[in-house]
Amino acid sequence: MAELPTHLDWSEQRVHDLDDDAQLGLMYERVIREAAHIDDLRTYLNASILIRVWPRLFLPVLARQTWEARFRHLVRAA
Question: Looking at the whole model, is its pTM more than 0.90?
Answer without folding.
Answer: yes
